[in-house]
Amino acid sequence: MSLSGPVQDIQSLRGRLLDIINLRPGEEERTLLMFAFYTATSMGILWLEVSSAALFLGAYGASSLPWIYIFSAGVGLGLSVVYSWLQRLFPLRRVIVIIALLMALPILGFRWGLTVEWLAAPMVFSMRLWIEAIYGLNDLNLSVTANQLFNIREIKRAFPIISSGNLVADVISGFSVYLLLQWIGLQNVLLLSFVVMVTGAALLYHLSRNYEHAFPDSPRRQAEDAEAVESYRSRQRLQGPIRQYVVLLFAFFVLAQMLLFSIEFQFFSQLEANLDVDAIAAFLGFFSGLLGLIELFTQWFTSSRLIEREGVFKVALVLPSVIGGLGLLTLALSYPSWLSASALFVGLVGLKFFDEWLRCTLVATTRPILFQPIPDQVRSTVQSWVSGIAEPLAMGGMGIAILLIIALCNRVGLSDPLIQARLFLVGTVAAALVWFVIMVLLRSRYLNLLVRGAERGLLSFSDANLRVLKRAFIEQLEQPGLEANKRSCIELLSHIDPQNVGEILAPRLAELPPGLQRQSLEAMLEHPNGAYTEQVQALLRRPNQTPEILALALRYVWLAEATFNINDLRPYLQPEVDAVVRGTAASLMLRRGNSQERAEATATLRKMLVHDEERERVMGCRALGEADYMESLSIYIDDLLQDPSLRVRRALLEAIAATQYKKYYPSLLKALQYKSTREAAVNALTRLGNEALPMLQELALDHYRPEILRNQAWQVIGNIGTLPALDFLIQNLITTWGSTRRHILRILLSLYQESGVKRSSLIDGALDRMLGRGGIEDLLNTELAFAGQMLAAKIDLAPNRVAGVEGDLLREALDGLQSDAIDRLFMLLRFVSPAQAIQAAQVSLSGSASSWARGIEILDNVVDVANKRSILLLLDRRPDAEKLKQLALATPLIVYQPLPPGDRLRQLLDLRNFLSDWATACCFHLARVQRWNLTAEHTLALLQHPTGFVREAVLAYLAVASPRALRELLPVLQQDSDRLVLAQIKQMITTYNLEPSPPL
Predict the structure, then answer these.
(1) Is residue 9 helix, strand or coil?
(2) What angle do CA 783, 15, 160 make, to 5 degrees?
(3) Which of 164, 197, 280, 664 could lock 104 by a disulfide, CB 3.0 to 4.6 Å apart?
C-alpha cells in the first residue's frame, strides 16, 4: 500500500508528459524508438555530409556540384528501384533494416579509399554522390516504417516528434563537428558516422522484431497486376480540374527542389571562394547546429499555430517571398565594388539559412495538406509520383541547367565569378517568382476542388482562404446553372460559415427562385442579423408572395430587429390569412408581446388547434414550437397527441421539444415505439440534446423493454453526439455485449466516418480518453477470446458426440455467435486501421477462395494490432479443430481443454451474459433432451431472463430435470408478462393439479 502513492505520482507524471507531447498511452515506446532511429541515422548522414562537403570543395570545387546533381538523380532513381525490388524478395520488416545498413556500408569503402592516393579523388566524388542520393532514401525508409507502425490517427500525433529527430541531429552533429575535428580528424569522422548509422539500423531491427505484427509476413510479389490496373484507373481518373491541379502540384515540387539545389550550389561556391577546407567543415558544423536548433523550436512551438491562424497558402508563400526579396537585396548590394564579394557571401549564407529554415518547417508541414483535394483513390499514386519522379528530375535538371549556364557564360566571355554569381542569383529570384505564381494558381484550384468534391460535414476549411471560397460561392449563385448545384452551395456555405451566411445570401434573395429563397431564409434564421432586414423586407412587400416564404421573412425581420411595433403583426392574425403566416405571426406575438397581446395570439392559436382542417391544426402546433411559450395552451396537448392526423401528432412532438415542455417528455419516448411517429420523436429527442440523455439512458439500459425501442434510444443518443452522449456510448461499449455492443459500434462508426471533422475530432478525443488504442485492443482481445470459446464449444458438441435436432440448433446458434464476434472484430478494427481497407477485406472474405486470399492479404498488410496473427488464424479456412489448436498456440487468450459435452454446456451457461437469447434457450433444450444436469444458479438466474422464450426453455427443462422444484416455483411465476410463457405455466399448473394464484 505504501507504494501506491509513488506509483500513482509516476503514472500521473507520465500522463502529463504524454499530454504535453500529444501522445496517447501505448504510442510512446514506438515513437521514442523511431525518434532514436531517425536521429541516429540523420546524425551519421550529417557527419558524412559535412566531411564530404569539405573534402569535395577542396578536391573539385563548387563548379563540379552540377555533376553531382545529375548523377545523384540517377542514383536516387536507382535506389528507389532497389527498394521496390527488395520488397519483392524479402518481407518489409527485413527490407527496412537492409536499406538502413545499405546506406551505411559504403562509408567503410570511402574511408579506405581516402587512404589510397590514386583512389582519393574518385572516393571524394563518390562520397558526395552517395550522400545526395541517400537523403531521399532515408526519408523514404522513415515514411514506410512509420506508416506500418502507426495508423492514420496516431501518425498525426507521433510523426512531428519523429521527424524532429533530423533537427535534433542537426543540432548535435553540427555543434560537435568542431570538437570531433580537433580530437579525431576529418577523415575519422567518417568512421563515427558509420558507427552511428549502424546503431540506427540496430534500433530499426529492434523495432521490426518488437512490432513484428505491424509488418506483413510475405514479400510484395502479389498484387502487381492489381497495382498495374489501379495505376491505369488512376490515370483515367485524373481528368479535368484534377489533372490541372496535379500538373501544378508537380510543377510546385519540381521548382521547390530546383530552388533548393540552386541555392545550395551558390552557397558552396561562396564557401569555396572565401574559406579553406578545415574552415568550411567547422563553419558547416556550426551553421547546421544553429539552424537545426532554430528549426527545432520553430517546428515544436510555431509551425502548427501559424498554419492554423494564417492558412496553408499564406504560410507557403512566405518562402518564395523571402527568397525573392533577399535575392534582390543581395543583388543590389553586390554592385558597389568595395562591397560586392562580402555582400554576395553574406547574402547567400542568409539565403541558404532562410531557405533551409522555412523549407524544413513551414513548407514541409504544409506539404501533406496540398494533396487533400485529390480523390482518395489516386492520392497515394500522385504522392509516389512526386517523391519518385519530381525530386530526382529537379535534381538532375538543375545540374544540367547549371552546367549549361556556366558553359554559355564562358563562351560569351562572362567568365568572371562575380558576374556568374549575379546571373545565378537573378535566375534564383526569377524561379522564386514563378514558384510564387504557381502557389497562387494552386490556391485557386485547391479551393475549387474542395468545393466541387465537398459533402456536408466531411471537410474543414480552417486551412482555406474563406474569402476566396466565398467568391466561388457568389459566382456559383449568380451564374446560370442547375438549381441543385446552387442548393448544395447554400447548404455547404451554411455549414462552414453559419454566422455570416446572410452576407452572401441576403443581397441575392430577390433574384433567387422560390425554392432557393426558402432555403436561404431558413439558413439565415439560424443567426438573424439586423443588417439584412431591408433585403428580407423586400420579400414581404412583393405581391403574390408564397405563404411559406412570407412566413419565413416575417419571422426573420421580427427576430433580427431590436425595436418593433406589435400592431404590424395584427393584420396577419386575420382568419383569411394563410395558416402558416397566421401561425407565425401568433408565435411572434406570444414571444414578444405584453400580456394582452399574448392573449390575442393565444386566442388565434386556440382556434387553429381545434380547427376542423388538418392544415390549421398542423400550423398551430408548429407555431407553438416557434413561440417558446406553451403553458397557456397545454390543455389541448392531450387531445392533440391523440389527433387522428399523423401530421398533427408529429408537429406537436416537435413543439414539445422546441419549448422543452418537460411534462410531456414521456410522450416523446412513447412515440418512439410506433413506426408512424418514430422519426418525429427521434428528431424531437435529438433536439433536446443533453436534457434528454437521462431518460434515454434509462430506456437504453432497461432490458425488459422491447429491443427495437432500446435500439432507438441508443440511436438518439448517438444523434445527440455531445461529449456526455459519446462518453455514455463508449462506456457502455465496454460493459455491454452481443447485439447491443454491435449496435453501439455501428453508431460510433457512423458518427466517426460520416459526420463533420469537428464531430469526428470529438469522437476521436472521447475514444482516446476513455479507451485509447490499448482499450480498443482489449475489446478486440475479448471478442477473440469469445470466438475461441465458441470454437471449443462447437468441437466438444460436434455432431458425432451430440446428435439430434436440438444439437443442430445449438451448433447453428454457436456459428451465429462466432460470426457476430467476427463482425464486431471488423468494426473495432476500423477504429485502428484504414476503414476502407478493412471493409474491402471483410467483403472479400465472403467470396471465392481467391477473393478470400485477397482479403487475408489486405488484413495482413493494414492491421497492426498485437494479436493480428490470431485474428488471421480465426479467419482462416481450416477445420475448427485445427484452427483452435493453432489459436491456442498463438495467443494465451485462448486455452483449450477438451471437455465432455455436458461439462461444455455448463461452461457455456457460465458465459450466459455473452450468449444470445436464442443460444441460451438452445442450451436448455439440449440439456432437456440429453438429461444433463444444470446448476440451480443457471436455472434460477435464467427464470428471470427478460426474453420470454428463454424462460419458456428453462421451464421445459425443469419439467424434465426437476419436477419437484418446478412445483414449488410455479405459484410464484403466474404473473409472467409473456402470454406464451403464461400459457405454459397455466398448463403446468393444471398438469400438477396446483391451485392458481388469485390475480393481482
Answers:
(1) helix
(2) 90
(3) 197
